């Protein structure tokens, strides 16, 4: 009887630990609202006219709805076969988006329109360099290319090209929706960033975008 009670007690402890771990892991994911694809009425020509580099931002928070719209426009899924709003060489879909916020760093999972928290700290101080204005932006989006997706096809060249497509999508969305941004590509410590994000050396940081509402 004592042995039976001991095993029951141990099983209860293990189940409680498993439940706690499961809940912690689940809490690290945030389901974003569906992107509002028809919410912006401006034309592409107006967005191009309004596109310009912005280096001063209001402290106003960016809502999850606006963030969902922005990330989908940047490199979200726009077809049933999983292809994206931005092209990529040999359809490598190598560009991953990491979002630095005041409460940590998140990975955008495009296929599920989710944010997955990867670190309780933000990467912003690691990449900002001389661009101190980026510290005032409510979010910073880091574009990282997974070179393994190219299977040996010159990952540095094609990764930079693909990052450029996504960067332009971010610029145009911001211009269309009253947000400001500027592409920044200073020399970054790839090894430190890879360790911080918990990814392999195949993941090369390419460009980052501070994003915020425009100071008037």
CATH architecture classification name of the largest domain: 3-Layer(aba) Sandwich
Q: What is the count of β-strands?
A: 7
How much of the sequence lies in strands comes to 15-25%
Over all CA atoms, what is the radius of gyration?
20 Å
Terminal-residue CA separation? 75 Å
Number of helices: 6
Adjacency order of strands in the biggest sheet: 1-4-3-2-5-7-6
Question: What oligomeric arrangement do these chains adopt?
Answer: single chain
Q: List segments where confidence is low: pLDDT < 50 over at least 5 consecutive residues.
A: 4-27
Order of helices and strands: HEHHEEEHEHEHE
Counting structural domains, the number is 2
> How is the biggest beta sheet arranged?
7 strands, antiparallel
Name the CATH homologous superfamily of the largest domain. Answer: NADH Oxidase
Tell me the helix content.
25-40%
Task: Identify the CATH class of the largest domain.
Answer: Alpha Beta
Output mean pLDDT.
89
What class do helices, strands and sheet pairing give? alpha+beta
Shape: globular
The CATH topology annotation of the largest domain reads as NADH Oxidase
């Amino acid at each position: 009887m004592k042995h039976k009670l001991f095993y029951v007690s141990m099983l209860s402890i293990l189940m409680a630990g498993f439940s706690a771990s499961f809940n912690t892991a689940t809490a690290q994911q945030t389901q974003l609202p569906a992107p509002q694809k028809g919410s912006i009425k401006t034309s592409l020509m107006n967005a191009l006219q309004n596109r310009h580099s912005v280096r001063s931002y209001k402290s106003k928070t960016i809502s999850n709805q606006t963030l969902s719209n922005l990330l989908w426009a940047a490199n979200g899924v726009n077809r049933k076969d999983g292809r994206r709003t931005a092209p990529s060489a040999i359809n490598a879909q190598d560009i991953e988006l990491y979002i630095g916020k005041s409460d940590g760093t998140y990975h955008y999972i495009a296929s599920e329109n989710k944010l997955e928290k990867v670190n309780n700290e933000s990467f912003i101080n690691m990449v900002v360099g001389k661009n101190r204005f980026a510290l005032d932006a409510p979010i910073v989006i880091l574009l990282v290319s997974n070179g393994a997706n190219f299977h040996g096809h010159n990952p540095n060249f094609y990764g930079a090209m693909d990052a450029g497509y996504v960067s332009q999508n971010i610029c145009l969305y911001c211009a269309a929706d009253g947000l400001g941004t500027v592409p920044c590509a200073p020399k970054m410590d790839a090894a430190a960033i890879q360790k911080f994000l918990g990814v392999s050396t195949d993941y090369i940081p390419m460009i980052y975008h501070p994003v915020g509402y425009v100071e008037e």
